[in-house]
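Quick note —
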Amino acid sequence: MIHNYIIPSLTAFLLIAGASATSNAIANDNGVQAADFVKIFEKLGGEHPGYRKAHAKGLCVSGTFLPAPNKHFQGSALLSNGELPVSMRFSVGGSSPTSDEKAPGTRGMGMQIQLPNGSLHTFTGNNFPVFAGKDPETFYGFLSTLLPDENGKSDSAKTIAFIQQHPSVQANVMWNQTAKTPVSFANTEFFGIHTFYFEQSNGQKTKFRWNIKPSLGVKTMEKAEAANKPTEFLADTFAQQLKNETVGFTIMASLGEVEDSDIDPSQQWPSERPQVALGTVTVKTSGGDACKNTNFDPNIMSAGFMPSADPVLKIRSQAYAISFGKRLSGQ
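Predicted structure written out below.
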């Protein structure tokens, strides 16, 4: 039960990070490496040559970004060049290209905005607000408890024990236990979960985390309603919504305080933190393969923006690059 429920959600962040190595059978002196995550997801979800190692099933869309300049991001090229083109990819959690769209759990989003000078700004997130582990070692340790033995069976007692011993995994596990099936990608909120900084033109730094709110509102389905859906419905639902109404998203930035962690994606910031809009995305088209070979590395940002020292965020670039290379070479 735990294996079936958690894995699609965590595979969502396949290339992101790992779990706490308080488990002696998992840790090593050199720490967890990016390649370790690629390997463990292939063990857990099977090998699917030519596909992303996480979020293998996806939908490409394109549109425009209209910025909302504000005092917290003064001098940002991202917010001062008017309307910009956007490429996006929505996805279902899991390493299989045939992941069940009716299943509850993780949905992902990658977005690249292209600036006039050719530079890119990337937003990559999921519909869960907290990560399953404070660092790569914790996440890897957690995933390792899900690996089947020589008889093809996983030990749920081992997984439960790990969760109990590692508090930073617990919030994500609780989210998985209550997650429902999204009605559409267009009705899903996405969270960046990591902390970023922006250095303003006056030298001050803005500490923030972002989330993306759908203009059509967040909508989910109960299990019985989802069971009546066809095996694949997300692409058709999105296309129909585009025909009938405006599909859009607002990118929001939560402004952090000194005491808010900038290195632990398993910790949510207090809900009372002020928010400002960075801009709105309006989707124009869906379908096709325009985003197939795009690497939505969240560390690719426009001038003035910079990543925090979050170790999970750091390892993502390496893991994304490995997965990208394997995908392009048909592995």
